[in-house]
C-alpha cells in the first residue's frame, strides 16, 4: 500500500507528542505557529525555484518538504487534515474557473 498524506499526518502526530529534544517536529511546533509558517514559506519558495528551473529531482524533494511543513503548520494551528480534504472534496462540484468567478472581489 502506498504512503499517503494520512500516513504522514499520523507520523507527524506521533512525532509532535515526543520531546522537542528528540523530535524535529516537536521542536518546530514548540517554537510556535510563526516558526512553522516561516518554514513552510521557505520550503514553498524553494519548490517554486525548483519548478521554474525545471529541476525535477529538486522539485520532488522540495514538494515533499512543502507537504511535511504544511501538515506541521496545520497541526500547530489545530486544523485537521480531514478538514482540508473535505474542503477539497467540496470544490469538486464545480470547475475551478466557476468557483473563482463566484468569489466576491476583495
Structure description:
- The mean pLDDT is 94.
- Helix 1 (5-16) packs across helix 4 (56-77) and helix 3 runs antiparallel to helix 4 (56-77).
- This protein starts with a helix and ends with a helix.
- It is globular, with a radius of gyration of 16 Å.
- The protein has helices spanning 5-16, 24-30, 33-52, 56-77, 81-90, 96-102.
- The protein is built from six helices and no strands.
- By secondary structure, it is mostly helical.
Keyphrases for this structure?
globular; 74% helix; mainly alpha
Helix-and-strand structural type: mainly alpha
Uncertain runs are none
For the residues shown, what is the average pLDDT?
94
Total beta strand runs: 0
Radius of gyration: 16 Å
Identify the overall geometry: globular
Largest sheet: none
Order of helices and strands: HHHHHH
SS summary, helix count: 6
Fraction of helical residues: over 70%
Query: Which band does the percent of strand residues land in?
Result: under 5%
Cα-to-Cα separation, first versus last residue: 43 Å
Strand and helix layout:
Layout: H1 5-16, H2 24-30, H3 33-52, H4 56-77, H5 81-90, H6 96-102
Helix pairs in contact: 1-4, 3-4
Amino acid at each position: 500500500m502506498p504512503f499517503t498524506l494520512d500516513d504522514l499526518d499520523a507520523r507527524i502526530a506521533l512525532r509532535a507528542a515526543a520531546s522537542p529534544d528528540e523530535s524535529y517536529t516537536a521542536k518546530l511546533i514548540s517554537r510556535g505557529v510563526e516558526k512553522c509558517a516561516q518554514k513552510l514559506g521557505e520550503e514553498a519558495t524553494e519548490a517554486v525555484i525548483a519548478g521554474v528551473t525545471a529541476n525535477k529531482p529538486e522539485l520532488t524533494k522540495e514538494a515533499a518538504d512543502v507537504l511535511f511543513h504544511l501538515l506541521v503548520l496545520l497541526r500547530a494551528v489545530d486544523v485537521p487534515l480531514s478538514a482540508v480534504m473535505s474542503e477539497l472534496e467540496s470544490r469538486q462540484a464545480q470547475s475551478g474557473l466557476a468557483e473563482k468567478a463566484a468569489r466576491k472581489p476583495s
